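Project standup — Tuesday

K.O.: blocked on the structure for the chain from last sprint. Re-posting the sequence here as requested.
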Amino acid sequence: MARNLVRTALAAWYLDELTDTAILLVSELVANAVKHTSSRVIRVIVTRPSERFVRIAVVDRARVMPELVKPGDELVASGRGLLLVDALAERWGTDLYRWGKQVWAELYCEPAR
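H.V.: unblocked you, prediction finished:
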């Protein structure tokens, strides 16, 4: 469902060229929320905070902050998700709320001419 939401939003904004990268980002963000939190419900949000960016966010009710592991750390079994997000996104971050958090990643898009 998260991938379809991203695909639909990008198509509506005529940003199909971002689809593959955006789907990979949302897959990693959702997987992290499912694996590393006890939240039974997560929310996926796709927005255009400006003409130049698309933001993909995953909201959960856990206050545990994600940690970016160093490339030299043991990454055989897991731990590569945020490294991938960091490599693919123009920028990413976490907004902490008293009831949970939002982890987001932004992709740059060429402004319409």
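K.O.: great, moving the ticket to review. The radius of gyration is 14 Å. The first strand starts at residue 43 and ends at 50.
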